[in-house]
Design goal:
Elements: H1 16-25, E1 29-33, H2 59-62, H3 65-70, H4 72-88, H5 93-102, E2 107-111, H6 117-121, E3 127-128, E4 131-139, E5 148-149, E6 157-158, E7 164-169, H7 178-190, E8 193-197, H8 209-215, E9 220-223, E10 236-238, H9 242-245
Parallel strand pairs: 1-2, 1-8, 2-3, 8-9, 9-10
Antiparallel strand pairs: 4-7, 5-6
Helix pairs in contact: 7-8
Bound molecules: adenosine-5-diphosphoribose (APR).
């Protein structure tokens, strides 16, 4: 029985009691999030079928340097579409719950998401393993790239060398940003508890982080309404939507 009046005592999903106990007792928490945490904000997950005009495309076939070089206008347009979609989205109770958790104990928040919704909810020092949707960088720029011009329907190109501007996200086949990866691995190795929210666990190296935490002694909690490969690594699996479940796992005020 919990003596804390802010934490409900009922158990809407099997494993809730155990998850609450693990979180309450942890001195520090390593959190790994994926697209599922933003699903309740209306941002489609990666492995959801695309809708509308984009229904005929597979995101895995658009999110690569090869795809961009082959069809720059199409891929750039897809990223503009995603930017618009995310700009209209709002953080949901799961994003806010993680802000509340960080007010109570040391939390390292590592995300595979590029949508910036954790930061918009108020999370600080978020480690973005896959970059950010709203950043731009150059594709093989000349080192002096600065100003860019875009012809109608095309991505911007550097005025000096003609290099393509590209979104500042990590594409399939690319390495993760080194500092982000190093910090994420260090945090996974040193935390008391690992909380995994809304990821299919299919994309490495991010998908290896819960296993790393576990090898270093941290129990692992997975929150996902669907079974995922990370269930095998978990001590507790909560088959629940993040926005409904996370606010019930710890007090929502620093109190
Ligand atoms: N709450 C929690 N989890 C949810 C919810 C929800 N409301 N809705 C869906 N999910 C789960 C799905 O069941 C699925 O397991 O979120 C997961 C989303 O999986 P993916 O779409 O594969 O997203 P993610 O794991 O973040 O993908 C990893 O792959 O395409 C690349 O770089 C891209 O960062 C992305 C990476």
């Amino acid at each position: 029985m919990s003596g804390d009046p802010l934490v409900p005592t009922s158990e809407p999903w099997p494993g809730m009691g155990e998850a609450r106990r693990l979180i309450a007792n942890a001195r520090s928490v390593f959190v790994l999030t994926g697209a599922g945490i933003s699903a309740e904000s209306g941002v489609p997950t990666f492995r959801d079928a695309l809708t509308g005009l984009w229904a005929q495309f597979d995101p895995e076939e658009l999110a690569s340097e090869e795809a961009y070089r082959r069809q720059p206008a199409l891929v750039w347009e897809w990223y503009l579409h995603r930017r618009e979609l995310v700009a209209e989205a709002r953080p949901n109770p799961a994003h806010y719950a993680l802000v509340a958790l960080a007010a109570q104990k040391p939390v390292t928040l590592v995300t595979q998401n590029v949508d910036g919704l954790h930061q918009r909810a108020g999370s600080q020092h978020v480690i973005e393993l896959h970059g950010n949707l709203f950043a731009n960088k150059w594709l093989n720029g000349c080192g002096r790239c600065d100003e860019a011009t875009a012809l109608p329907g095309n991505p911007p190109r550097c005025n000096l060398c003609g290099a393509l501007m590209r979104p500042g996200v990590v594409w399939f086949g690319e390495d993760l940003p080194r500092v982000a990866r190093f910090r994420a691995e260090h945090a996974a190795e040193s935390a008391d508890l690992c909380l995994v929210v809304g990821t299919s666990g299919l994309v490495y190296p991010a998908a290896g982080l819960p296993g790393l935490a576990r090898e270093h002694g941290a129990p692992v909690i997975v929150v996902n309404p669907q079974p995922s490969v990370l269930d095998q690594t978990a001590d507790v699996v909560l088959q629940a939507a993040a926005g409904a479940c996370l606010p019930l796992l710890w007090p929502q005020s620093a109190g």
